[in-house]
Task: inverse folding
């Protein structure tokens, strides 16, 4: 989670105001340990490997705005 902590510190934002999109269990684990919401891009990854680390999975990038609550 070091990279996530560095980015949050640099941008002066709280983890509750962040979300990451990850396609690997390692990245989803880092997001979970940093207490950042995680969207797990599971087009080429087993969704269960991402949800094991708390990620909300999806398989089509066109779904991201809806997952973020953005009307696009």
Result:
């Amino acid at each position: 989670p070091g990279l996530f902590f560095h980015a949050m510190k640099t941008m002066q934002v709280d983890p509750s105001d962040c979300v990451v999109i990850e396609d690997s269990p390692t990245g989803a684990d880092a997001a979970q340990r940093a207490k950042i919401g995680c969207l797990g891009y599971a087009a080429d990854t087993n969704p269960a490997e991402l949800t094991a680390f708390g990620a909300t999975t999806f398989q089509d990038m066109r779904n991201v705005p809806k997952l973020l609550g953005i009307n696009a």
